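User: Please write out a complete single-protein record containing the residue sequence and its fold in token form, without commentary.

AI:
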Amino acid sequence: MNQLNAENPNYRLCVQCKKPDESRYCRSCLSKNNEQKHGRCIFCKQIKTGKDWCQPCNSKIFQENFDNWTSGNDEIDNFIQNTQLSAKNHHQILEWIPYNRFGKPNYIAEGGFGKVYRASWKDGHITHWDTSCRKWGRVNSGSLVALKSLNNSQNVTLKFINEITLHLKVHEYCMSDTIIRCYGITQDPNTKNYIMVMYYAERGNLQNSLNKEKKKQHKKQKSYKFSNLDLNIRIWKHKINILKYIAAGLRKIHGKELIHRDLHIGNIVCNRTSPRITDLGLCKPANYNEGNNMMYGVLPYLAPEILRGQDYTKASDIYSFGIIMYVIISELPPYYKVAHDEFLALEICKGLRPEFNIKVPKLILHIIKSCLDADPSNRPDAKYLSRIFYDWLIDFDKDAISYSESINKTELIKQIEEAEQINNNSSTNSSPLTIHPEAIYKSRPFNYKNLTEPKNSDGYYEIYDNISTMKYSESLLKSDKSDCLECEITD
């Protein structure tokens, strides 16, 4: 066993037979499970690899249609064809979708490297081969999908397409409810930019979802007459539930030995029931040149080691998750008072972190601190975070009717109550936020020089008044660029 581990550090035990394997299930157990669950194909007698999905038969059907479509780009054609030939269920396929199969696109938002629209898809996505009609069975015809147009993608490369469709690895056995799915690729006939056709999250961005939940809980308060304290605790529960879903999505990504690399609040969208992570692998422009030595990302969400030019890691994703925790709990954008430039990057390396304007329970603040630790090896992994949030939600459910009247309160509920009493007695400024004109929350290229070795602020794990003991310096608030560090940043 130890020898296997030494030779292949990525192995794990099959969850069924406990034999070493690189996948969740070994090939033998997976085959047995598929036969029990899905049966055999009535035509080729092979074991089906998914619900109503025979890989050998469906591969032949896809292949027979290869000459009937083209994206205009041989590399994209080959990539889509390979996914169709290797797909073991309908979650793993991509289609080339003619642009005229969509209704009129409506603009939603613009990101760092493209624009997002929504449009109805006349056909809907493939689920199985309908043997009686001799055509692909589809669902959700006429439903809305998100169209992500990629700037300057006319000559997009296979490597880039591979990266932005990494989600296919996440949906190995079934559709993940924490990762946004991509259905295929199309092309704008006017701009010639390629477009990712993706699942449409109807609640939109995370802030919209939070606002809707608050309104919902206020309505419940009027109907059921529960206290303000109970109201606040219900909102805390909702926020932790959101964090649980995001951590679970990140756990799935990391479990496939993938790294998101551009995790920020703009890449978290919500459907009716849960938030989902999107834009997996999309952290640079479509016309990215390997030789330009530029890094990409939303500066406030980037770990100090990334700002210094090191490679993206799972630990750098965890740092980004820590900033997301701050945003969800504070309902403030990170570092909104200052310009997002090399001065901020330098201060982050010195130990600056976003500031709360509210009291935060110590248990929760400690998790944020650990995620934002300057030393990547001190940050928790996604599996640990997912478990912590799951356990905390159990704490909430123990006294779901009235938290304020509960006798056997858990430590988390006690800390939330204490924090809310302090917050209710404090005079927080409720005026509209004034965001610095150079606080930019889009992915941008940067290449900073001469940043200091990252470190935590003094007393980082001893003082729990805030994340960091370090405050904004006067020079940072002024952001005088006359003494600019040697750097390069491009809008």
About this structure: The chain has three domains: 1-38, 41-199, 205-286+293-489. The first helix runs from residue 2 to 7. Residues 245 and 368 are 16 Å apart (CA to CA).
